[in-house]
Every structure is written in structure tokens, then in C-alpha cells.
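Batch job 17 of 40 flagged for manual review because the log was empty.
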Amino acid sequence: MCALGAPWYTVDLPQICGPAPVPHITLDNSRIIYDQACLKLEGGSTWASGAVSLIQGTPPAVDCDGYVAETSVDTGGTPIVVCRDASIYMRETFMAVLTGTDGGSATVCIMENTGA
């Protein structure tokens, strides 16, 4: 329930888990970060640690573990301080810092694909 991307709702989440961490995720195959980008966790990794690939184009939803829901590019470069779709009572949408292969990074909101 405390893991990033967890779809469970509980009003006690902030007390049970504390504030959500903001992971720093390095994309292993892309320097481009954009809205609605499909993200794939590699090798059984988690959002908090592990390898993440950006899948180009419009892959089937089953191939995506999550999507970039919003980026700091959308806010004119101003870092995101809270994800619009996020609820403090669940961790399905969470904030992260994505870094591309060129070293450029963006603050993003990631929405877990719970149907994957």
C-alpha cells in the first residue's frame, strides 16, 4: 500500500506510510521526456529503484507500467510541487525526477497503469 504506484486507497495512508518519496529515475534508452510517454519497468524493478525504459510511439497499454502524466515542461520549466491527479490517500500517481540519457532531467508526475 505504501509503494509508489500502489492503487489502494486508505485515509490513514499519510499516517501509516509518511510522505511519498520522490524517486530519481534514469531512463535507460531515451533523452526525450514528454507527456503521455509510456514507461516500462525493466526486470521486475520498482518505481523507487531500478531500470525504466521509455517506449516510443503508441504501444499497447499492456506494454506500459505507467505514463508521464505531467512534466515541468508543461509548467514553463517551473518544477512541479504537487501532481494534480494525486491523492494523499493513495500512491497511484506520484512525483518523480526523470533523467534522460543526455543528462537532461524534468520533474514529472507518473501515473501507474494499474491495468497492466
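Reviewer: the log was empty due to a logging misconfiguration, but the result itself is present. Residues 13-112 form one domain. Unflagging and moving on to job 18.
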